[in-house]
Every structure is written in C-alpha cells, then in structure tokens.
Amino acid sequence: MKATIERSTLLRCLSHVQSVVERRNTIPILSNVLIEASAGGAVKVMATDLDLQVVEALGAVSVDQPGAITVSAHLLFDIARKLPEGSQVSLDAAENRMIVKAGRSRFTLPTLPRDDFPMIAEGELPTSFEIPAATLAEMIDRTRFAISTEETRYYLNGIFLHVADDELKAAATDGHRLARFTIKRPDGSEGMPDVIVPRKCVAELRKLLEEALDTNVLVDLSASKIRFTLGGQNGVVLTSKLIDGTFPDYTRVIPTGNDKLMKVDPRTFFEGVDRVATIATEKTRAVKMALEQDRVTLSVTSPDNGTAAEEVPAQYSSEGFEIGFNANYLKDILGQIEGDSVELHLADAGAPTLIRQDEKSPALYVLMPMRV
C-alpha cells in the first residue's frame, strides 16, 4: 500500500478514530488502526475496541498502490499532530513496516496484517431513520449526565432509547436522578426495539456530532447493534454493540401528583446552591431547602466546616416545608435549563421532585431527596 494524504485531512480523521482505541490492550491489534487505500484515491481508516467500531472515509492526494495495513493508532496520530502544517504525508507499507514521510521527516513503524483486524458483524439492522444532528446532540447533552457509572447495574450504563406515544424518548438514570428528553417520532422508527446505547458510544458520538451539527444523521439499529452514519458518503460511520439488559420502567418514578410548585430563576438558584455547597464535605453533600412564601432558603451544615445559608427569591405559595438534595445532582439538572425560569414540582421531604423548564419542555428531570 502506498498513499499520500494532506496532513490536515489525516489528522482530523485520526483524531476521530483513535479515541475509540483503548490505551492499554492485551490484544496488540486492537491498538492499531486499519488503513485501506483503493485505486480510486479513496482511503478508509478504521478502529475498534470489539464493542465499538468507527470507520471514516477520506480523499487522498494520490494512491500509488492500493492495499490495506494496520499500524499503531496513537503513534500515527501523535506523528500527524507534530508534522508541519500544510505538509503532505506519504504512507508506504511493505514487509511488516510502514514508512511515514512528510517534508524532511521520516518514520518507520511496525505493522500487523489486515487479516487479523477484527470487524463487528452488524447483521440485519431492520430499523432505519434520520434525525437532525443538532437534535441528537441535544438529546445526548440533556440526558447523559444521569448515566450510571456503577458497573454492577450495567443496564443503567447508557442512554435508553425507545418509542412510546408516537414519540422517540431518550432516558438515563443512576437511581438517584432521572433525565428524559422527548422528540416527535422520526419516520421509520415505528416498531423499533427498546435499546440501551452504551456510555462510551454516547461519548464518541457526541464528539463526532460537534463537526456535523447542520446535517442529518442516519440511524440503523437492531435489538443488539446500532449504527450512526454522519456526513453521507465521505463521512464517519460509528457502529456499536448495545447493552444486553432490561432498562427499568422509569415512568413509575415520574411523579404525577406533586401539588407544590416553586418557580425560580435557574441561574440564581444554581449559583446559590453552588455557594452554600462550598462548605459541604463528601459526607454532607446535602443542601437543605426551606421553602416559604416567595422565597427559598438554602443551607448546608458541616460538622467540620461550619454552616452556610443563602436566601433566593422564588415564586411559591403553598405551605412551607424543608427538603434536602445532593448539591451536585441539583446543579447538574439546573445546568441543563436554558430559560429564565425553572419549575420544581414538590410533594414532601421524602418524595421525588419533578424538575422542568415548563410543561412544553422536551426535557424532564426527577431528583430523589436526601435526608438532612
């Protein structure tokens, strides 16, 4: 194989694919990217960790000799990063070596044969629909902070995508908080299986979406695999295995009868919680909210660091009571609200609280209280 590629093109492509490759690998070939050059001047670069696979097509300046080879992903990325801007990179593979040349630089890297490179067998992906990249990015941003990192409850380690009531819903929960984002059901997604998209796939997809926000993403899926195609023919294809498990029926924890409504400016509220939480320690992450007529008093008491309190103006006309929340969880949710008002629907000190911008908002959050 022999091909010449613009440094900026190669660098952008490698930055996408190398982040899938784990830094430590017991299987040497998984540290490599597969580079495949065809006679027409097209080059494909591929990386995998056996659960997630990313393939990107790019145009080469020239392909003198078609072929395919695998070479260390992180090494090639680091080399491309350090080469001078505007240079052309020549990749020449023969006899278990790849020679990388650009300007006056020359590197000789070890290679492994392409036949050893594992591919994810996609099988049939019967459900297929398109979704605007900006919508998909928002769906991820509004929910992924609530994904659980607890390995024992592996079925919570991702975003749950499912179709219900003529809507496509994305939900994530770690048992303490729930985030859900809803959009109108895209054409082609009816009858789709309920799927859990793993955390790593979500993170890689979100990075790729950043460069394609004004395009559409093609989503193909079955009950065990999902594939995202960004940027059409010369784009990036991300394929991932799905989490094999059952996501709990989260609708049961969304409260419907919470009769106490508090409206507050999310920025002011966030900053107030952030300030009083300064003295909270690992043991006392709880912030106490005392609700009274048209105001809420936030307070934290720490046996080591003393106490803090702050009063925040709010619209509230129900009876006064006190409730505690994990300060970080509350801040995570408030950080998602973009308007100048947020609604907290409360019941009592022991019941989950529903948080949303308003009833028309596509995003909805539920937060479990803490004892304070």
Automatic annotation (TrEMBL):
Record carries keyword Cytoplasm: yes
Pfam families listed in its UniProt record: DNA_pol3_beta, DNA_pol3_beta_2, DNA_pol3_beta_3
Occurrences of domain DNA polymerase III beta sliding clamp N-terminal (ranges): 1-120
Domain named DNA polymerase III beta sliding clamp central: residues: 130-249
Highest taxon of the lineage: Bacteria
Entry function: Confers DNA tethering and processivity to DNA polymerases and other proteins. Acts as a clamp, forming a ring around DNA (a reaction catalyzed by the clamp-loading complex) which diffuses in an ATP-independent manner freely and bidirectionally along dsDNA. Initially characterized for its ability to contact the catalytic subunit of DNA polymerase III (Pol III), a complex, multichain enzyme responsible for most of the replicative synthesis in bacteria; Pol III exhibits 3'-5' exonuclease proofreading activity.
InterPro entries, per the entry: DNA_clamp_sf, DNA_polIII_beta, DNA_polIII_beta_C, DNA_polIII_beta_cen, DNA_polIII_beta_N
Subcellular localization, as worded in the UniProt entry: Cytoplasm
SMART domains recorded: POL3Bc
UniProt family annotation: Belongs to the beta sliding clamp family.
GO molecular function, one term: DNA-directed DNA polymerase activity
Subunit structure: Forms a ring-shaped head-to-tail homodimer around DNA.
Name of the protein described by the UniProt record: Beta sliding clamp
UniProt keywords, alphabetically: Cytoplasm, DNA replication, DNA-binding, DNA-directed DNA polymerase, Nucleotidyltransferase, Transferase
DNA polymerase III beta sliding clamp C-terminal domain ranges (all copies): 252-371
